[in-house]
């Protein structure tokens, strides 16, 4: 029987899901192994095989594909554990990466941080200046060669960088997105000197106007590409040696996969791969439940992630920012804060309780894990409050230490604030809910949407324990906790259910609307490039759908909006239709009447995305129907649980999820124990088990 596997390597846990395409899905959760992440991946596959009752070799031999989401790229950039990179730029233009387009002090900062003028700082440079070298060449805005490439100079510069011991070279020449001939020749000359050296070209990674963003994207691609290759290559080899016949696919920020062989070339597209899995899983679940607008909330061990699905599709962004440097790579728009189950609680010098962004991660983990952690976390607070049982998670294989949790909270939070351990624990719990609720409001309202038009999905190891709290004030119609066979491995389910995705783009700044024949020419070229990119994947897929976009802005503005273009023939009316879409989208975000066409509109970048289905139906199965709404047969115990600082500890029924059936209802306060998580149903909330085994929470 064939299988599809999804593997989500997070900062604390590695989650995995296996589907047989016929309705059977099993999941597994194992600790992430930070120093050798492939070990955690193989451990998770072994757990899946055990759940299926077969051997690892048999499972791999029957696997059609493995879709893998990894934190390797984003962690390397954030932590600075990247390859030593050299830059080759057009003479006179290497300093763009240091000048930072005058944005260096504000990029990626909140409004509060931007207003704090005295503390604003540029980030550390991506590479030292002695590794940023220049060559003589010049291409103009139309792609015409004004000054030929000085090849002897390129050889000299390349030898200098190789002698410095760089692991990769980024090549970013002026106007190369209009004519890439010089960049391609530079790569050929570098490989004459160092055939195996990793070389990345801006014309391939980021063919967009704006020199600074293009250069930063190319450098960061070179920084993470070699390390991603050194991780994926041995992982793929070990999987193939173990019997894997299908491809290893890697999730990208835009919500689709590429093969492990191609991923290092476009390493920057994998930066948000783990963030995308949960949103894609939410999209697939929404298709089964008939929901069009969804807020996805993923609370893992390290982070809280929020994404939006509107009219059945994820909300996208043309790029992102890491460490105050822009990345030109299409991505699912995901908002994040360091406020997961392992978020560290502390008291600052002003006597304020802080939660995150630092995390206990997998090692040493929360204090209650008994692995050497001594600082309190959100998980420790939930144990003290009775939300978690000392039996722990993973079917009792991970018992929790109440004494260590109380000791950590008492020393680091309760004593400094003059509170009891229980009071400090509920304060931690409520701060978590407040931080998450604030993020959700920003994510939805700042995107121009009304939360009342959405359903919220809550998953991850810690999401179900807090979702009723952080969604209470949003005004959503209901909160769905995806349980069933995927439980807290929901992001891994999204990976297994994802498609192959590739995209191409080109920049051609001009006044809009342009002649419809020019539009036809641009998109014909892009779609031909896409077909070649799909062919290079060497993966068997079925239906291919194309999604066209164009980035537009009003004249003299800095930022563009990505506007979808209908997949129809271009006519004289097409330009006007695109402008109408742009104005509608602009006013939805910025307010009615904010548009001003008289200022003129500019087209900047044209883009086409392709999604190719793998033909494997990864869907959640339906569960057994209950005879009625009474869930007493699933009652496990009653224990004191504190869910509110005003009411304190209340004797609360605790239910065993394995005994719940479709149609069962729970009236809060209640707790539902799942092997890998717990669901909290506070007072004033009702929980109903739907046909897929999800617990649907609604406010009374």
From TrEMBL:
It comes from the Bacteria. Residues 517-691 form the Acetophenone carboxylase-like C-terminal domain. One of its GO terms (cellular component) is cytosol. Residues 214-501 form the Hydantoinase A/oxoprolinase domain. GO terms for molecular function: 5-oxoprolinase (ATP-hydrolyzing) activity. Residues 5-193 form the Hydantoinase/oxoprolinase N-terminal domain. GO terms for biological process: glutathione metabolic process. This is 5-oxoprolinase. It comes from Actinoallomurus iriomotensis.
């Amino acid at each position: 029987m064939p299988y599809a596997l999804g593997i989500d390597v997070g900062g604390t846990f590695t989650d995995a899901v296996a589907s047989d395409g016929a309705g059977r899905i099993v999941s597994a959760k194992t600790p992430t192994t930070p120093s050798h992440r492939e070990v955690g991946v193989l451990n998770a596959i072994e757990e899946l095989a055990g759940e299926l009752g077969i051997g690892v070799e048999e499972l791999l031999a029957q696997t059609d594909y493995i879709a893998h989401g990894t934190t390797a790229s984003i962690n390397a950039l954030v932590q600075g554990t990247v390859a030593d990179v050299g830059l080759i730029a057009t003479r006179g233009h290497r300093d763009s990466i240091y000048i930072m387009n005058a944005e260096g002090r504000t990029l990626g900062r909140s409004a509060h941080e931007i207003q704090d003028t005295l503390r604003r700082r540029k980030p550390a440079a991506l590479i030292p200046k002695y590794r940023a070298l220049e060559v003589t060449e010049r291409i103009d805005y139309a792609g015409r060669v004004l000054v030929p490439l000085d090849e002897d100079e390129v050889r000299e510069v390349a030898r200098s960088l190789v002698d410095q011991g760089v692991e990769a070279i980024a090549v970013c020449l002026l106007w190369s997105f209009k004519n890439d001939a010089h960049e391609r020749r530079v790569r050929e000359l570098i490989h004459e000197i160092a055939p195996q050296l990793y070389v990345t070209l801006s014309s391939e990674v980021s063919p967009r106007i704006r020199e600074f963003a293009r250069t930063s994207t190319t450098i960061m691609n070179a920084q993470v590409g070699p390390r991603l290759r050194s991780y994926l290559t041995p992982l793929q080899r070990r999987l193939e040696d173990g019997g894997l016949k299908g491809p290893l696919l890697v999730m990208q920020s835009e919500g689709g996969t590429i093969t492990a062989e191609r991923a290092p070339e476009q390493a920057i597209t994998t930066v948000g791969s783990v963030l995308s899995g949960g949103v894609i899983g939410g999209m697939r679940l929404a298709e089964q439940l008939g929901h069009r607008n969804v807020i996805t909330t993923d609370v893992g061990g390290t982070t809280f992630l929020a994404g939006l699905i509107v009219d059945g599709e994820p909300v996208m962004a043309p790029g992102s920012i890491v460490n105050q440097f822009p990345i030109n790579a299409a991505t699912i728009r995901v908002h994040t804060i360091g406020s997961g189950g392992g978020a560290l609680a502390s008291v600052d010098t002003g006597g304020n309780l802080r939660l995150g962004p630092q995390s206990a991660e997998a090692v040493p983990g929360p204090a209650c894990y008994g692995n050497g952690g001594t600082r309190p976390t959100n998980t420790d607070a939930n144990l003290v409050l009775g939300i978690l049982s000392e039996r722990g998670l993973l079917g009792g294989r991970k018992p929790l230490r109440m004494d260590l949790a109380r000791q950590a909270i008492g020393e680091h939070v309760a004593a400094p604030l003059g509170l009891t351990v229980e009071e400090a624990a509920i304060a931690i719990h409520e701060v978590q809910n407040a931080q998450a609720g604030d993020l959700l409001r920003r994510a939805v309202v700042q995107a121009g949407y009304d939360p009342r038009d959405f359903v919220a999905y809550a998953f991850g190891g810690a999401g179900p324990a807090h979702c009723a709290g952080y969604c209470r004030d949003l005004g959503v119609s209901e909160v769905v906790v995806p349980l069933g066979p995927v439980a807290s491995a929901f992001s891994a389910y999204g990976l297994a259910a994802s498609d192959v995705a590739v995209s191409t783009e080109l920049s051609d700044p001009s006044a809009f609307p342009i002649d419809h024949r020019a539009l036809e020419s641009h998109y014909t070229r892009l779609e031909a490039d896409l077909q070649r990119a799909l062919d290079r994947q060497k993966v068997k897929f079925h239906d291919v759908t194309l999604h066209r976009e164009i980035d537009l802005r009003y004249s003299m503005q800095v930022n563009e909006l990505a506007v979808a273009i209908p997949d129809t023939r271009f006519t004289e009316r097409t330009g006007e239709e695109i402008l109408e879409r742009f104005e509608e989208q602009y006013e939805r975000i910025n307010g009615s009447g904010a548009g001003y066409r008289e200022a003129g509109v500019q087209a900047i970048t044209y883009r086409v995305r392709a999604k190719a289905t793998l033909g494997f139906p990864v869907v959640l199965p339906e569960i057994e129907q209950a005879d009625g709404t009474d869930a007493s047969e699933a009652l496990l115990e009653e224990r004191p649980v504190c869910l509110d600082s005003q009411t304190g500890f209340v004797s609360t029924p605790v239910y065993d999820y394995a005994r719940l059936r479709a149609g069962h209802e729970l009236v809060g306060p209640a707790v539902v124990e799942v092997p890998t998580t717990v669901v909290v149903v506070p007072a004033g909330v009702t929980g109903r088990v739907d046909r897929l085994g999800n617990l649907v929470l609604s406010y009374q």
